[in-house]
Amino acid sequence: MSETVLITGVSSGIGLECAHQLTERGYRVIGTLRRADEAERLRLVLGPNFQPLLLDVTDQAALPGAVCQVQEWLAGAPLRALVNNAGIASPSGPLLLQPLDEMRAMFEVNLFGAIALTQAFAPLLRSRPGQPARLINIGSVSGRVTTPLTGCYAATKHALEAVSDALRLELRPSAIDVVLIEPGPIRTPIWSKAGGDPRYADGPYAESMQALQRLVAKNAERGAPVERVGQAVLAAIEARRVRARYPLHAMWHLARWLPTGLLDRLLARRLALGQRP
């Protein structure tokens, strides 16, 4: 039986690309999605090595049933890797004005969903000689560099970094490697879903929100190809000695060396936030 990888959020973007690359490589991929019609479409796209799992990562009550279903499919074999990919990037807004309910919803998907899936499926991750099990979290360059007006999204990715750091040590005795993939802007539908928000069309942040939308549009056109993330995930699964982090954008490295004040000025200029009086 081919080795099995579980990926969350495979209906589009990074998750779909990861599923595509892994099934072509011969892995069996179990992919979570929320709609039955999407499941049938992806069966046709990805072929016989793909097994859809209907699951919303925020539905904790559904997790025990999902685990039982995956155990049945595994038939006693171990899970080679879990890829926590499911996430949302919008809505954006200034933290002083953004409703807390929106922020909580983003944390539910991007952070607590990843933790819940890890708690549920980690017992199925078992290493074999020469085949280490891997827990792979899809983070972001925003986990290191916070862009103004996307503070909530960045906060979820900063938190995922902390969780990954803790799990890397906590799972060490179980011989499960924990890896963080940190892409920058990627050409995926996640950007097209982050449209302008009329709530901030007037007021002190109106010009900055317009600048953010221009930046989003630029990222949608000029971001890195999604294949790059899929390649990083495949490398993280198959590497003999895996790295803890796979940063995929130059800003991740620049943020380590640029003085905070200089980085602040660069970001403020990009988002039309003006100068201090």
Task: Please describe the topology of this protein.
Layout lengths: L3 E4 L5 H12 L3 E6 L2 H11 L3 E5 L8 H12 L4 E6 L15 H22 L11 E6 L12 H20 L5 E7 L6 H4 L13 H17 L4 H12 L6 E3 L2 H8 L2 H11 L7
Parallel strand pairs: 1-2, 1-4, 2-3, 4-5, 5-6, 6-7
Helix pairs in contact: 1-8, 4-5
Summarize the structure.
The protein contains ten helices and seven strands. The chain has 277 residues and is of the alpha/beta class.
Descriptive notes:
The N and C termini lie far apart (66 Å). This protein has a 7-stranded parallel β-sheet, with helices on both faces. It has one domain: Rossmann fold. Helix 1 (13-24) crosses helix 8 and helix 4 (100-121) packs parallel to helix 5 (151-170). The protein is globular. It has 277 residues and is an alpha/beta fold. The chain contains 10 helices and 7 strands. The mean pLDDT is 92. The protein has helices at 13-24, 36-46, 63-74, 100-121, 151-170, 189-192, 206-222, 227-238, 250-257, 260-270, and strands at residues 4-7, 28-33, 50-54, 79-84, 133-138, 176-182, 245-247.
CATH architecture: 3-Layer(aba) Sandwich
The percent range for strand residues is 5-15%
CATH topology: Rossmann fold
Radius of gyration: 19 Å
Corresponding CATH superfamily: NAD(P)-binding Rossmann-like Domain
Which class in CATH terms?
Alpha Beta
Domains counted in the coordinates: how many? 1
Question: In terms of quaternary structure, what is this?
Answer: single chain
Strand order, sheet with most strands: 3-2-1-4-5-6-7
Question: Using DSSP, what is the number of strands?
Answer: 7
**What sequence of helices (H) and strands (E) makes up the elements?**
EHEHEHEHEHEHHHEHH
Average pLDDT figure: 92
